[in-house]
Amino acid sequence: MYLALERYTRPSSVAEALAAYAGGKGGVLLGGGSTLNVEGNHEEVEHVIDLQGLPWKQLASGAQGVEVGALVSLRALGRAAAAWGPRFAAIAPAALAYPVVGLLNRATVGGRVMLDRNDVDLHPVLAALDARLLVVDDAGERALPFPTDAAGRRALAGCLLRGLQLPAGGGRSSFHRHARIQVDRPLCNAAAWVEGSEARVFAGVQGPDAALTRLGAVEGKLSGWGDQRPPDWRGQVREAALADLVAYEDPWASGTYRQDVTATLVVRCLAEVFGEAVSE
Q1: Long-range contacts at 28-36 (CB < 8 A, ≥ 24 apart)
Q2: CB 63 within 8 A of CB 140
Q3: CB under 8 Å to 162, separation ≥6 — which residues?
Q4: Which CATH class is domain 173-273?
Q5: pTM greater than the 0.85 cutoff
Q6: CATH 3.20.20.190 correct for 59-167
Q7: How far apart are CA 162 and CA 69, in angstroms?
Q8: Closest residue by Cα to residue 133 from 203, 77, 70, 75
Q9: Concatenated DSSP letters for 75-105?
Q10: What is the DSSP letter of 2?
């Protein structure tokens, strides 16, 4: 119950939305509503700004890549991404990771991206795919790199997210997660994109916030091998991943357990990218 709620605003233009939001001081934003006020006390919310009247539901793919509107639902994203080719193969399983109808139909791409939480499955995928965030504020629109640390998150303060840009290119991506049950938050997740000797590999749920861990040692192995992987590549990748990862502990998993499982997920991602059998 919103005991302090006094205003509900549904802007029909970006200018109206920016004026209402006032750089983050005007109220809380409503996209799909699945995580409304997740970071605050709903009893203190005085003003809800409903963004659903804005024209930010585009899903367009072309020669330059893919553009996804901030108000696209997770279900719509997952269904569309299935036709975008191997480069974007990691998107659908990450978008559809929670098989809960209400969440998939209501949660939006923008809402997920802007959450400063460590359990968002899309985050490592978007980082691995070198996504750009299309943000707007009083200074206009600009494209920002997908934030992988606290500084990147701070750069989003006071902005509205209009959508994402995913650059075109080759290669293949993969995403894997581990949770206690399928409909639960991930205990850890990982995403990888590889094309020849180029690679980007990220892991999530490696700390208390939305910061991601980039697995530089794993990327270095892949860069050195190119298309000539050694027979024991899985063992070498696992060893490199363990060196990259910290032992982050929380109430749901010990640090060593999370570290070990995340390394396994990285190996699974790469096996899938390479077209090899993925052990469960």
Answers
A1: 29/160, 31/70, 31/71, 31/108, 31/110, 31/111, 32/71, 32/73, 32/106, 32/107, 32/108, 32/111, 33/106, 34/102, 34/103, 34/106, 34/107, 34/111, 35/107, 35/111, 35/115
A2: no
A3: 14, 56, 69, 70, 134, 135, 136, 141
A4: alpha beta
A5: yes
A6: no
A7: 6
A8: 70
A9: HHHHHHHTTS-GGGTTHHHHHT-S--HHHHH
A10: -
At 58, the amino acid letter reads Q
- What residue spans in the chain does CATH classification 3.30.43 cover? 7-52
Domain 7-52 has CATH 3.30.43: yes
Torsion angles phi and psi, residue 140, rounded to 5: 120, -165
Instruction: Render each residue's pLDDT in the chain as its tens digit; 280 residues.
Output: 667 777 888 999 999 999 998 877 778 887 867 666 555 566 677 888 889 999 999 999 988 999 999 999 999 999 999 999 999 999 999 999 987 888 888 899 999 999 888 999 999 999 999 999 999 999 999 999 999 999 999 999 889 999 999 999 999 999 999 999 888 899 999 999 999 999 999 999 999 999 999 999 999 999 999 999 999 999 999 999 999 999 999 999 999 999 999 999 999 999 999 999 887 6
